[in-house]
Amino acid sequence: DIKTxxxxxxxxxxxxxxxxxxxxxxxxxxxxKFFGMLKGSSMKEATAEAEMLLARMNIAQKKHHLASxxxxxxxxxxxxxxxxxxxxxxxxxxxxxxxLDPFMERIFRECAHEAMARGVAVLLAAxxxxxxxxDVGHVDAGDRLAGTGEIGVGVLLQRPRVLxxxxxxxx
Length: 171
Description:
By secondary structure, the chain is of the alpha/beta class. It contains seven helices and five strands; from the N terminus they run αβαααβαββαβα. Strands 1-2-3-5-4 form a five-stranded mixed beta sheet. The longest helix is centred in the middle third of the chain and has 16 residues, at about 100-115. It is globular.
């Protein structure tokens, strides 16, 4: 029940908002440790996962830099790493690749697919949905959710558990 278990729900969610929301006085590694611990990880677990995500996002060389000093692309990588830390069950990506070059878009796409392969439900709001692999369920909710053809909303969901839940009204 979402009302009685709200802390569990919050710890199982990851969010990569359209606009970068970072603390100006925290370094990259401090952001990841903070959000990892906020989601229930110990300092040791958060540190280990942060190091892994820094390497995966190719920003390990910036880990001691203030988030406010990063380039736009580096800030997007940090936002995605924040969304993925703490082993969330659901990750919401709002325009994660806006303003990024094709190389960065590929990294985001690969990270989303890796998360789905681990059983994470990934909800993507984007004007241009990420290409979907065959082993991943895809629900195109465009006009039905947005009410207009101008804003496309793609929902990528790990299959079959989540799609089964959607079909049977369990979500």
